[in-house]
Amino acid sequence: MPPRSNQRKRVLSGMRATGKLHLGNFVGALDNWVRMQDQYECFFFIADWHALTTDYADTSEVKANSLDVLLDWLAAGLDPERCTMFIQSHVPQHAELHLLFSMITPLGWLERVPTYKEQRDNITEKDLGTYGFLGYPVLQAADILMYKGDFVPVGEDQVPHVELTREIARRFNMFYSGKRSYVFPEPQPLLTPAAKLPGTDGRKMSKSYNNTIMLTDPEPVVRQKLKTMVTDPARVRRTDPGNPDVCPVGDLHKIFSDRPTIAKVDVGCRSAGIGCIECKSWAADALVNVLNPMQERRKKYEDNPRLAWDILEAGSSRARKIASATMDEVRDAMGMSLDYPPLGNARGAK
Asked: Which CATH class name applies to 10-197+305-344?
């Protein structure tokens, strides 16, 4: 394993190659990643192979979707000088480690992953009865353990995936480490502060619900989406007092608006001193202030996508060097080194 570039703890995380990102992705992960760059040694990857677990039947958009994810990362403030960004399929060692881990992972471990049954029940329009879908936590474990990360930033719902990764690391070490030090450290989950970010219909923001505000939405689109956003159901008339703590627009204010605006919303809503239209307009102002600088940064790479691909390939090259060293250790521990054994030690040698 090449020496670390510094003494900072190492963090690894990724996003599936599903195209342009929305505010939920920004609040739930990306904004936190940007802040991590100066505190940790960060590796962030675009999981194009993971995208195939549900979209294997049509791969025509995977490449374009990968680029869109990268552009939104760069727009949000990820910096190739401060973190390593790469694409999963450009580091083929991930596939080899996934294969080796799949040999030792009990089937029952995968069947009990909470999101497995949940997605099988909810994504009914696609055939998810494939090994790839059942085994994606094993590929996820390979993604994480390849870089011997100290932490994996996740929300609470993803903690079981990190625990499964720890179990796979433990099992591999038990089988193959022998008298040597363990090959894989057990990474710890780094819980991401979970802000409540509703979509325009009040449910969790998700492309599946068609209720998103995209990071690339221009100002007129943002304002139009806010106009149709649901509010406190108890506030039927303009003169009815409301409760910003149960209003989806109030949740947006708490995340994106400044303190004076939040105070005005709180007092005005509860006293019926402001209407929902005015409140939504203030929320749109706050969102536009966040999104406009991102969209300006994104345009630089949209106009010259070669710059973005060069960043991704440089990061993939750095990732491959680390992955190659890890796989040398793995094969050596398993007695499957690519080197030929000394002939004198070969079975049957005289």
From this structure: alpha beta
